[in-house]
Amino acid sequence: MRKYLLWISLLLSIITVFCSKTSDLLQKAKASESTGNMGEAYTHYTQALLEGSPSGKIPDFNRSKFLEPALWKKEVEKYILWVTTGTGRKSANINSIIEGIKRCAHSTSSVNTLFNLKDKELTSEEYLNLWNKTFFAPNVPVNPDHAGLASGNYIRKLSFITIKGTKNYTYEGALVNEETGCSTGFILYAEGNVTFLAPPGKHILVYRSTAEFPDRKVWRSPYSTVGLDIPEKASLVTAELRTSVSRK
């Protein structure tokens, strides 16, 4: 019992620290915005969003190679629960942070761009095929129990979002669900791709790019944001990330 109480106390302390940091960043953002420094305000708002948005992980389909099928299915179910409901409690500051980002984004230039954004409504068969490719590594037998899971989430209108990376840059960030205030973190390696599941509605992609030059120096961009409206029907949303920067 004592260990349990200590664990709860530690958890509450961590939450308090994160909430305090988020509030501090939000106040800095508002102060910068009030003086017309939109670039600095945007930086603080994006940092506040990343700090204040509880983050989950995309299941690594390589785990389907060695986990028992039932355990792997539970991990996928846990991920689905996260992207649809999050923590069940939205941070009080999230709406203010998102509104601030939207106000400042138009006044801020970025070296990062999301382009070639497309969406295609999926049939139930296409959905199941994409589900299996997303959650089962090549050459891993597909667990037939996933058919019902895929069908249920097709009916719930969850969409797949696949983002591709370009040459030379690694991207990191999170997809934030505006309704729940929670996010799913990601790392996208050069010329790779990453796939999310997301419910219909408004989301924000927060990301930055990283490059390592021949002299082994590492460059990181500031964070960029882009709004994504996920369709009302189960779809495949695709896009690519590009970075354009010259090294002086």
Indicate the overall shape.
globular
Indicate the structural class. Answer: alpha+beta
Total number of strands: 10
The tally of helices reads 6
User: How far is the N terminus from the C terminus?
Assistant: 60 Å
Strand content: 25-35%
What's the overall average pLDDT, rounded? Answer: 90
Low-confidence stretches: 3-18
* Helix residue percentage: 25-40%
Rg over C-alpha atoms, rounded to the nearest angstrom: 19 Å
What is the element string, with H for helices and E for strands?
HHEHHEHHEEEEEEEE
Largest sheet: 6 strands, mixed
Short characterization:
The chain is an alpha+beta fold. Helix content is 40%, strand content 28%.
Observed structural traits:
248 residues, disordered N terminus, 6 helices, globular, alpha+beta
Write the layout of secondary structure elements.
Blueprint: H1 2-34, H2 38-52, E1 55-57, H3 69-85, H4 94-105, E2 112-121, H5 124-135, H6 146-155, E3 159-164, E4 170-177, E5 183-188, E6 193-198, E7 201-212, E8 218-220, E9 224-230, E10 235-243
Parallel strand pairs: 1-5, 3-10
Antiparallel strand pairs: 2-10, 3-6, 4-5, 4-7, 7-8, 7-9
Fold and architecture overview:
It is a single chain. This protein has helices at 2-34, 38-52, 69-85, 94-105, 124-135, 146-155; strands spanning 55-57, 112-121, 159-164, 170-177, 183-188, 193-198, 201-212, 218-220, 224-230, 235-243. It has 248 residues and is of the alpha+beta class. The strands form two sheets. Strands 1, 4, 5, 7, 8 and 9 form a six-stranded mixed β-sheet that branches. A hairpin with a 5-residue loop joins strand 4 (170-177) and strand 5. Helix 1 (2-34) runs antiparallel to helix 2 (38-52), helix 1 runs parallel beside helix 4 (94-105) and helix 5 crosses helix 6. It is globular.
